[in-house]
TrEMBL record:
Annotated organism of origin: Ruminiclostridium herbifermentans
Cross-referenced InterPro entries: Aminotransferase_I/II_large, HTH_trans_reg/aminotransferase, PyrdxlP-dep_Trfase, PyrdxlP-dep_Trfase_major, PyrdxlP-dep_Trfase_small, Tscrpt_reg_HTH_GntR, WH-like_DNA-bd_sf, WH_DNA-bd_sf
GO terms, molecular function: DNA binding; DNA-binding transcription factor activity; pyridoxal phosphate binding; transaminase activity
Top-level taxon in the UniProt lineage: Bacteria
Record bears the keyword Transcription regulation: yes
Protein name: PLP-dependent aminotransferase family protein
Record bears the keyword Transcription: yes
Family: In the C-terminal section; belongs to the class-I pyridoxal-phosphate-dependent aminotransferase family.
Gene3D superfamilies from the UniProt entry: Aspartate Aminotransferase, domain 1, Type I PLP-dependent aspartate aminotransferase-like (Major domain), Winged helix-like DNA-binding domain superfamily/Winged helix DNA-binding domain
Length: 474
């Protein structure tokens, strides 16, 4: 019998999820070894003082997430440790590095040297002078009302998202909290969620933490495969579909207008919510306006639109917004209040001034030009690496390049070799599920955190690693 010292809490998280998290940690830390048999359900339940269903559901979650394997007539056994080592590997973990000697092609956040410190400080000072102590109090859980009004105007003018009621705007403490709130409002254990394949690993982590069963649908050049999507909607009856329609993470694909219309038609046909996660549409380097799915949802019925400001502004501000269908407003207000009461009052009030004084538009244009220059320089360096057999698209926007490596190369090995030489990038295993045939075929490069000289040096390191791998095959 394994040594278990779990203490169940009254945190609101079901006991089976607490047990799932605890056993997952034991596996990740190696305290439960590969091939080790887990206790029988009845005896384990008696030992923990819970009913059998709690243990059954915890084991099901572990099995769904590939941590354990069921052997008919024998019981449950810990799966191979290498798979779980990769699962615990996340894009956020890779992207965070405080070593100045490291060149970071993993992070998608702007470098602190280009943060709009002075202009945002002016707004903070103005708010403190105007509002005094009220700037530091709790806000309405929906968010500071003048900010929500400013965002209504901004979303209408910029994306043709037409809302008349500021109550449809929910301020969140960063887009990750937005995804978490969506999970808490819409998902119960055992529900199905459909995502693009590959997709953002942070969203997958949230959905799985709610006990969801994640079903993936491959992407085509203009968005999600609608034929396969409809088939899976019929079978799974998902609670929601999660998509990124502009410069998708990690593939950089943007949806065509026809695909957006057909996707919304499927949501209407099967009465299913779609979560549109948008952090990149502001970063189009062509003279064209990208359409959003939310703009087509004119009756505000099916699309939950999530907007992040971190890629343009400063990630540490932890502020974003959601546009919520009328039927869900009350649920989101309650869950937001239960999560953290409200997002920072000072930051919300300062951001409202940032929008109203025109500083947001000015800074957005400034950042777009900076990112465009980095994009074009990295693209020019990638073109010189084509002789090594790499393949990639030219997204003309966003912050990434999605690179397919030759069949004889391993994305994970390239990651390890580049890291040893001082370059961070992200291997595709982060974004695919464990059994996907493409999980070792791609690398994602971001130019957000690096200056031109760092991009030059980083691409030189990547070329050396590609050359060494090519040489080993000859």
């Amino acid at each position: 019998m394994i040594n278990v010292s779990i203490q169940f809490t009254e945190s609101g998280q079901p006991k089976y999820m607490q047990l799932f998290d605890y056993l997952k940690k034991l596996i990740a830390e190696g305290q439960l070894k590969t091939g080790e048999k887990l206790p029988a359900i009845r005896s384990f339940a008696e030992m923990l003082g819970v009913n059998n269903v709690t243990v059954i559901n915890a084991y099901k979650q572990l099995e769904n997430n590939k941590y354990i394997t069921a052997k008919k007539g024998s019981g449950y056994y810990v799966s191979g440790s290498k798979l779980h080592e990769e699962e615990l590997f996340s894009s956020s973990d890779i992207g965070i590095s405080d070593k100045t000697s490291i060149i970071n092609f993993a992070s998608a956040t702007p470098h602190p040297s280009i943060f709009p410190i002075e202009s945002f400080k002016e707004c903070i000072n103005e708010v403190i002078e105007r509002d005094k102590g009220f700037a530091f109090g709790y806000q309405d859980s929906k968010g500071f009302k003048p900010l929500r009004k400013s965002l209504l105007t901004y979303l209408n003018n910029k994306y043709s998202i037409k809302m008349e009621n500021e109550d449809n705007i929910q301020i969140v403490s960063g887009s990750q909290q937005g995804i978490d709130l969506i999970g808490k409002v819409l998902i119960n254990s055992g529900d199905y969620v459909i995502t693009e394949n590959p997709t953002y690993d942070g969203a997958i982590a949230v959905f799985k933490s709610r006990g969801a069963r994640v079903v993936r649908v491959n992407l085509e050049q203009d968005g999600i495969d609608l034929i396969d999507l409809e088939k899976k909607i019929r079978i799974c009856k998902p609670k929601l579909i999660y998509v990124m329609t502009s410069f998708q993470n990690p593939t950089t694909i943007s949806y065509s207008t026809n695909k957006l219309k057909d996707l919304l038609a499927l949501a209407r046909k099967y009465n299913t919510y779609i979560v549109e996660d948008d952090s990149m549409s502001d970063l189009c380097y062509e003279n064209k306006r990208l359409e959003t799915l939310k703009a087509l949802d004119t009756k505000n019925e099916y699309v939950l639109y999530l907007k992040s400001f971190s890629k343009i502004l400063m990630p540490g501000l932890r502020v974003g917004c959601m546009v919520i269908p009328d039927l869900l407003i009350s649920d989101f207000t309650k869950i937001k209040h239960a999560s953290d009461i409200s997002s920072s009052g000072l930051i919300q009030r300062s951001l409202e001034r940032y929008f109203e004084t025109g500083k947001w538009d000015e800074h957005q244009n400034y950042m777009r030009e900076i990112y465009k220059g980095k994009y074009e320089f990295m693209l020019s360096r990638l073109e010189k690496l084509s002789s090594y057999g790499i393949k990639y698209n030219k997204p003309n926007g966003g912050l990434y390049f999605w690179i397919r490596v030759p069949k004889y190369m391993s994305a994970r090995e390239i990651y390890d070799e580049c890291k040893a030489k001082g370059l961070l990038l992200i291997p595709s295993s982060i974004f695919y599920d464990i059994n996907n045939e493409n999980r070792d075929n791609y690398i994602r490069l971001s130019f957000a955190s690096s200056d031109i000289e760092q991009i030059r040096e980083g691409m030189t390191i990547l070329e050396k690693c590609l050359a060494e791998n090519q040489k080993c095959t000859k």
